[in-house]
Amino acid sequence: MSEVYASRRTRLRERCNASGSATALISRPANVRYLAGAAPRGAVLLLGRREDLLVCTGPPDDRPSEGRPDEALRVHCLRRPGGDPAVAAADLLVGEGGDSLAVEEHHLTVARHRELRSVAPGLRLADLGGAVEQLRVVKDEEEISCLRIGAEIADQALGELLESILVGRTERHLALELERRLVDHGADGPAFATSVATGPNSGRRGHRPTDRRVEEGDFLSVCLGASYRGYRCEIGRTFVIGTSPADWQIELYDLVFAAQRAGREALAPGAAFRDVDRAARQILDSAGHSEGLQELTGHGVGLEIEEDPQLSPAAMGKLDACVPVTVEPGVHLPGRGGVRIDDTLVVRPEADGGPELLTITTKELLAL
Amino acid sequence: MSEVYASRRTRLRERCNASGSATALISRPANVRYLAGAAPRGAVLLLGRREDLLVCTGPPDDRPSEGRPDEALRVHCLRRPGGDPAVAAADLLVGEGGDSLAVEEHHLTVARHRELRSVAPGLRLADLGGAVEQLRVVKDEEEISCLRIGAEIADQALGELLESILVGRTERHLALELERRLVDHGADGPAFATSVATGPNSGRRGHRPTDRRVEEGDFLSVCLGASYRGYRCEIGRTFVIGTSPADWQIELYDLVFAAQRAGREALAPGAAFRDVDRAARQILDSAGHSEGLQELTGHGVGLEIEEDPQLSPAAMGKLDACVPVTVEPGVHLPGRGGVRIDDTLVVRPEADGGPELLTITTKELLAL
């Protein structure tokens, strides 16, 4: 694995050099993990002039789910408790004669940035911007394999829930049970706070579970994901409780299903982000559901659950092969509830069979 | 409740005026909640020239655990999805003729700060520093009552765990079960990631649960807390598994217990933070456990699980009445395990009976 991290760092270094900084300080945890193999709490990565250095507040945790620091990296642990690894890194850099440093201005606070300047007044601080986030967009097969395992775990957890009795149980309990099942099946933990929404809550994106109980006739929408070796996937499904869905429920379900399928089918290398969004969105729009539509139809996933790209009307850019994204349109009718259907897929060229569906739980409307 | 939030904002405004800023922008979520009653995701609070304004990315969530925005506040929801409420607030302020604004430089990123400057070039940005964090240190009885309920919930969850069979179960499962029980008893959720540590892991502060199973003869240390209406408490206990603890286990337990008691007894209005720390620390030190001692003996709790004050050798300042703190010394012997004992208490004057213990689970060494 060590070569993977080294080659990521090499690519980043090339970008830095091209923009005039010889060295860079990475502080955003997912970026540190991407480049160093692990991101112990508070750690920063210094791409130095001669060598790269992981600066930690204490000894790294040794659990597979947390990752292990690349053995090619020197690990430096602060001796003084409560010290700031970013400041220590700047100090080390000055000690070896560095004079310019690119930092992540979208992650560093103003106060930390000022502290860096005061510790190393001779150091010219530049902005690294989202350079690491951009490197992270296209995944290698190792990363996709972690996402695939995470998706299998989420499918299993969801499948088991569907076999249990649901009526009378609260959203909060169902969410906790799903999270326990994720861990049972080998997840590091949930990829994000599991959402379970019943009745009038169903179909709301990111709904936080309440004490409302599942009732006959409800829509039940569930969104969960597993984190596996740091990689986070997402699946969302909507079900009907009871034997016979109402006509409006079947209609709404079919509509969201059609939108979600259109979004999935639009995924291809070279497709514009906004065209994928439009493919799904226009189906909901033309059925009169433009009010209250969410801002995104989908987004990238990886070491964070919401990464670039965004699939939205205003997004600029095009998909590449090997980019994992969600496709998750939904409609929520205030007071009645709604439907969300959410898959994680990997963009693949037509020649390789088109988009690879990671979350394979059925999207038929199940009456439970 | 509305007067509570209004009076907190008045106190903050007085501090701002004293340091030359007529207006302030609060972005750190716990600070927003403290002053506004709720902190919807991404929301910021503008203490304006004429009125105070909560600027949100969308309509506030309506759950008691999330808090409700103070009704005396005007709530402004952004129309454009993906917009930054801080930028919108600065824009509004300029519109009404504001010329200076104190911001939380320890929370705002460099990139957001720059965006504020570019949107409102005429606005002089100052640093609010930790002014809100300082206001938050001393709690009112309403806040203490939330902590007390949270502590009861944590005591209940822990008590139930002790009645179940432990041998053979993994740290991760025990942690998940504790978190489920917290929610069963009415917590918003866990106050922090529940720590369960067995055998050689026991006694490590912040140990993250692994797949190690509880064995006969193990020390088992558990640290958990409930969040109740946003307020977070903490309890930690260490147990022995099996009928007869080894001599080294009894000795180590008695030592940490003595240190923890000394720390608790040192809590009083006017006591220096470092003296409380020293009271506990010197007992461990003089028994030869100075190596590897944690940097803190305890810390404040409230809307965040780690707040001011810090009870540590280098901390400056003195305790006030109505400050809730943890006292949590511990010793970890590499390869063997160790002991941590952790309570949440409220500092009270001698005349009121001295420190109020919120977490009342027994600290006798239980053999389970």
Automatic annotation (TrEMBL), chains A, B:
<protein>
    <submittedName>
        <fullName>Aminopeptidase P family protein</fullName>
    </submittedName>
</protein>
<feature type="domain" description="Creatinase N-terminal">
    <location>
        <begin position="8"/>
        <end position="138"/>
    </location>
</feature>
<dbReference type="Pfam" id="PF00557">
    <property type="entry name" value="Peptidase_M24"/>
</dbReference>
<feature type="region of interest" description="Disordered">
    <location>
        <begin position="191"/>
        <end position="211"/>
    </location>
</feature>
<dbReference type="InterPro" id="IPR029149">
    <property type="entry name" value="Creatin/AminoP/Spt16_N"/>
</dbReference>
<keyword id="KW-0645">Protease</keyword>
<keyword id="KW-0378">Hydrolase</keyword>
<dbReference type="InterPro" id="IPR050659">
    <property type="entry name" value="Peptidase_M24B"/>
</dbReference>
<dbReference type="InterPro" id="IPR036005">
    <property type="entry name" value="Creatinase/aminopeptidase-like"/>
</dbReference>
<dbReference type="Pfam" id="PF01321">
    <property type="entry name" value="Creatinase_N"/>
</dbReference>
<keyword id="KW-0031">Aminopeptidase</keyword>
<feature type="domain" description="Peptidase M24">
    <location>
        <begin position="146"/>
        <end position="348"/>
    </location>
</feature>
<dbReference type="InterPro" id="IPR000587">
    <property type="entry name" value="Creatinase_N"/>
</dbReference>
<dbReference type="GO" id="GO:0004177">
    <property type="term" value="F:aminopeptidase activity"/>
</dbReference>
<dbReference type="InterPro" id="IPR000994">
    <property type="entry name" value="Pept_M24"/>
</dbReference>
